[in-house]
Every structure is written in structure tokens, then in C-alpha cells.
Design brief:
Elements lengths: L1 H22 L9 H25 L2
């Protein structure tokens, strides 16, 4: 049970490390779960679109 909790916690830590490195999110200004989910989804989508544009138009 403790190992499972740690595994889940580590997954969250990796997610925040990725967000800090790739999405430049240092803190979440919104506090409600729905607002946080929406903000993160938009940030990830924008990052993916920028990567797609970069890969598609790279010469």
C-alpha cells in the first residue's frame, strides 16, 4: 500500500517537473479542480501544437 502511494506521488512529481520545464508553469493561479484541469489541458495542447508546427515547417 505504501509503495502504491509513493508510485502515485512520484507520477505527480514527474508531471510537475515536465510542466515546469516545457510549459513554463511555476505555479497554478487557479485553485478549483476544474480550473486547474482546464488550464493544464490548454497548456499541453498549445505545447503540442507548437511542436507540430515546428516539426511540420522545419526546413
Amino acid at each position: 500500500m505504501i509503495a502504491n502511494i509513493y508510485k502515485r506521488r512520484w507520477a505527480v512529481e514527474l508531471l510537475f517537473r515536465w510542466m515546469k520545464g516545457h510549459l513554463d508553469i511555476r505555479r497554478l493561479p487557479l485553485k478549483t479542480p476544474n480550473a486547474i484541469h482546464t488550464q493544464l489541458a490548454i497548456a499541453v495542447l498549445v505545447q503540442l501544437l507548437l511542436q507540430l508546427k515546428k516539426d511540420h515547417f522545419e526546413v
